[in-house]
Design a protein that fits this description.
By secondary structure, the chain is of the alpha/beta class. The chain contains 16 helices and 15 strands. The strands form three sheets. Strands 1, 2, 3, 4, 5, 6, 9, 10 and 11 form a nine-stranded mixed β-sheet that branches. Strands 12-13-14-15 form a four-stranded antiparallel β-sheet, with helices on one face. The structure holds zinc ion.
């Protein structure tokens, strides 16, 4: 969807910002933005978030002076809806890219994704807004669901997908930065190195558990067999699988280190807002399964890293407020002094980045398997509570995260008054979603067949049979 032109009213709004902000807005308009989304990167497996292994020394160093959000939550448990929420600042049921496409009909139709399985052309993306404001927009993406056939190239003047590793991305973007860094740009990078199969290279595969003796490797078949109950994992096996996952993160970090060095070398880092996040996390049997997906709305999947490195501003703070992936787009636009086109459902985190006191905050997430809502899951997360509503697929769950951070003891029967209040919040959220959705153009559902290469990537990542 094309961007609305900035209205006179919006311009007056911009000028009426606080004096400090208005004074810097002209400069902000010249700054660049880099958004790094790392597929399946768990926050709690990064040094920044106090992980026991030193998996991310380059990220830790680079974002040391930045703002670190310790309670950031994705809006879905898997790539397509979550990434679409990052790019549009809309909840999944509003942007419409919500359903899991691994069904027979989709395969029968020759992998033609209908409405509900793509980021629809009727939805306005961050890249479209910035392109309309004169930014050179470029995206480089790994992983099947990030491909342009799923709608993610909207607003990018250059969009290259299908990368298999961050090394491949670096081969493209480091020369691109050398050539284009003098222009005002928005660069989106999507890495896949933390995603299964957990296999990087011998150096990283052996980095964290070199003495393991057993048959576990990072193949997707192992993950599938465990999730289907066809094999079990010993304590050592699970430990090794996690070590392989951490090896992928270490590899990613080393490659990102090369990107950060290039940004420093070109003197770009100090003129660029750099955001690092993930589309979701990953589970390692905490709730009986591996990987991620629509039925796994626990913190190991929904909690994501969210780091902002602000040019010429050392903030260096941890922020505990519960925030959401949909807040990324309004924060970037606020930073660039661009009035968000309506509607966006997130809010700017810039005041928090600059030191405003944390509030409590609430996050919502939703995932679904198909449009008949058989397996739809909705989640409400506060600092203390997690309420999971399984629409048709099992009992609802309530966790007291203060006493039970691992989400083990379902307290749904013990807290009837709280459930009443949380249910009301859910209802209000659903009504607001309906209101916003009605204000948007209808989904076009314009089909576009996936190229054979995309189908192969989705198979490689285990999303297609
Ligand atoms: Zn993903």
């Amino acid at each position: 969807m094309r961007v609305f032109r900035l209205s006179l009213l919006a311009m007056i709004f911009c000028l009426s910002l606080t004096p400090g902000r208005a004074a810097t807005s002209a400069l902000r308009g010249e700054w660049n933005v880099i958004l790094i989304v790392n597929d399946a990167l768990r926050a709690d497996h990064m040094g920044t978030y106090s992980y026991a292994r030193n998996t991310t020394p380059h990220i830790d160093r680079f974002f040391k002076s930045g703002a670190i959000f310790s309670n950031a939550f994705a809006q879905a448990t898997w790539t397509l809806p979550s990434l679409a929420s990052i790019m549009t600042s809309l909840y999944p049921s509003v942007h419409g890219a919500i359903y899991f496409p691994n069904d027979a009909k989709w395969v029968e139709d020759g992998y033609t994704p209908p409405a509900g399985k793509i980021l629809d052309n009727s939805r306005l993306t961050l890249a479209e807004v910035l392109q309309d404001r004169g930014y050179l927009t470029a995206g480089v993406a790994s992983g099947g669901f990030t491909n342009s056939a799923f709608g993610f190239s909207q607003g990018f003047s250059q969009y290259v997908d299908g990368y298999k590793s961050m090394q491949g991305i670096n081969r493209t973007i480091l020369p691109w930065l050398e050539k284009n860094h003098a222009q005002k740009f928005f660069l989106y990078i999507h890495s896949i190195d933390a995603h299964d199969p957990y296999k990087t290279s011998p150096r990283f595969d052996q980095l964290w558990d070199p003495d393991y003796v057993g048959d576990i490797d990072g193949r997707r078949e192992i993950v599938t067999a465990v999730n289907n109950g066809k094999r079990t994992l010993s304590k050592d096996d699970l430990h090794h699988l996690i070590a392989l996952y951490d090896g992928g993160i270490s590899y990613l970090d080393e490659q990102l280190g090369q990107l950060f060095d290039k940004l420093d070398e070109l003197d770009v880092a100090d003129k660029t807002l750099i955001v690092l996040t993930a589309d979701h996390g990953e589970q390692f049997m905490e709730h009986g399964n591996l990987s991620h997906g629509w039925l796994a709305p626990y913190d190991e999947v929904l909690r994501v890293p969210l780091l902002f490195r602000v040019p010429a501003q050392a903030t260096g703070r941890q922020i505990a407020q519960v925030v959401e992936s949909i807040d990324i787009m309004p924060t970037i636009l606020d930073f660039l002094a661009i009035t968000p086109p309506q509607p966006v459902q997130g809010q700017s985190l810039l005041p928090l980045v600059y030191g405003a006191a944390s509030q409590a905050g609430t996050a919502f997430a939703e995932s679904a398997h198909s449009d008949d809502k058989r397996d739809a899951v909705r989640v409400l997360r506060t600092r203390r509570w997690k309420y999971i509503r399984r629409m048709n697929s099992g009992p609802d769950e309530l966790y007291d995260l203060k006493k039970d951070p691992l989400e083990r003891v379902n307290r749904i029967a013990e807290e009837p008054d709280l459930i009443k209040s949380l249910t009301l919040q859910f209802t209000q959220w659903e009504q607001e979603n309906l209101r916003v959705k009605k204000s948007l153009p209808p989904l076009t559902g314009k089909p576009s067949s996936l190229e054979e290469e995309t189908v192969e990537q989705l198979k490689f990542l285990g999303y297609l049979p």
